[in-house]
Structures are given as structure tokens and as C-alpha cells.
Amino acid sequence: KRKLGILISGRGSNMMALAGAARADGSPYEVALVASDKPDAPGLAWAQDQGIATFALSPKGMAKADYEARIDAALRDAGVEAIALAGYMRLLTNAFVARWRSRIVNIHPSLLPKYKGLDTHARAIEAGDTHAGCSVHVVTEELDGGEVLGQAQVAILPGDTADSLADRVLTEEHKLYPRIVAEWLSK
Ligand code: GAR
């Protein structure tokens, strides 16, 4: 099985979906490490309870290069071969991306190339879009800009708020991400 590392910053529901799918028969990957830039991320405690190896390091007061070198070392020590970002709300440096070239994917809550960055659901509603969704893409130096590996759509309903739309998109994220990661790591 391929060893997957997952980076999170908070709730970690996409990480939980990936970890759940990894336990199913025939999964091409296993979760070798869950790492967080927020030592108090709820997802980290969940992963620990599941017996998954975890690593937490706050970048506060550290040079970014030093912080990332520590994350990189933790991933390598765990034997990680590929990385899934799951609500990891920190930009990776170009050096880190280059070191893991074509081996990092991210899930982003919009139908890329629309709405890169933050506040995706509010922006989709504001624009009067009929659909929103989520995308799994390869991570490159360009924010939310790498090759899209898969997407899922939901209709934007009358009366939707950013929160209600986010809830429905999240349900799709939890199905899309494990499926695309399994396909990606089966190649
Ligand atoms: C998810 O909706 C994910 O798509 C989004 O943050 C949420 C994390 O939830 N990611 C981004 O906005 C990346 N820029 P989770 O921690 O429960 O997986």
C-alpha cells in the first residue's frame, strides 16, 4: 500500500473520510501520518484516538523554512510517499512543493478554475451561479492552480447561505476525495 500523509489545520472531516476509506478492503493507500500546524486541531485528537501517527507543530515564532523542514522530516520519517492537504490553511513554499513535485493533492471547495482562495461559497452565491462544488487538484506553486483530477457539483438553492451551501458541498467532498486519491495512488 502507498503511504499517504495528510496535512490538516482544523476539523479534519476530509481527513476522516480519507482514513475511513483507507481501512476498506482493496484500498491502494494507508494513512501513515496526520500532521497539523495547529496543535489543538480537533482532527488531530481524532486521528490519535484511531491509532494513526500524528505530528503537530505550530509555525509561530519560527522561520517558515524551518517549520516546513520539520514537517518534511516528519513525513519522511513516517515513510510518506504522497501528501493530501485536507483543510490545511497555510501556503506551502515553492521549495516544499518542488521537493514533493506531483505528489501533493488538495481539495478545494469550488469548481476550479472558479474561486481560488477563500470565501468560495459566498462568492459563488454572490455571482448568481446555479452550481457550486469541490475540486481535487494537484498542488503546484500557483495557489489552487494545478491539474484538476476530479470535481463534484451541487445545485445552489434559493435561500442558500454560504454555510448551508458549504454543508452540502462538504458531503460531496467526503465522497470525492477518497475516490480521487485512490485513483491517483493506483497509477
Ligand atoms: C473543506 O471544505 C475544504 O475543502 C476547505 O476547508 C474545509 C476543511 O474542512 N479547504 C480550503 O478551503 C482550502 N483552501 P475539514 O477540516 O473538515 O476537512
Q: SSE layout and pairings?
A:
Elements: E1 2-8, H1 13-22, E2 29-36, H2 42-49, E3 54-56, H3 64-77, E4 82-85, H4 94-99, E5 104-108, H5 120-126, E6 131-138, E7 148-155, H6 162-186
Parallel strand pairs: 1-2, 1-4, 2-3, 4-5
Antiparallel strand pairs: 5-6, 6-7
Helix pairs in contact: 1-6, 5-6
The chain binds glycinamide ribonucleotide.
Counting DSSP H or I runs of 4 or more residues, the number of helices is: 6
Assembly form of the protein = single chain
Enumerate the spans where pLDDT stays under 50 for 5 or more consecutive residues.
Answer: none
Radius of gyration: 16 Å
**Which structural category do the helix and sheet elements fall into?**
alpha/beta
Helix content: 25-40%
- Could you tell me the mean pLDDT? 98
For the termini, the CA-CA separation is 12 Å
Q: Biggest β-sheet: count, sense, barrel? A: 7 strands, mixed
Order of helices and strands: EHEHEHEHEHEEH
Widest beta sheet: strand line-up: 3-2-1-4-5-6-7
Bound molecules: glycinamide ribonucleotide
Active site: 108
GO molecular function: phosphoribosylglycinamide formyltransferase activity
Site (Raises pKa of active site His): 144
Pathway: Purine metabolism; IMP biosynthesis via de novo pathway; N(2)-formyl-N(1)-(5-phospho-D-ribosyl)glycinamide from N(1)-(5-phospho-D-ribosyl)glycinamide (10-formyl THF route): step 1/1
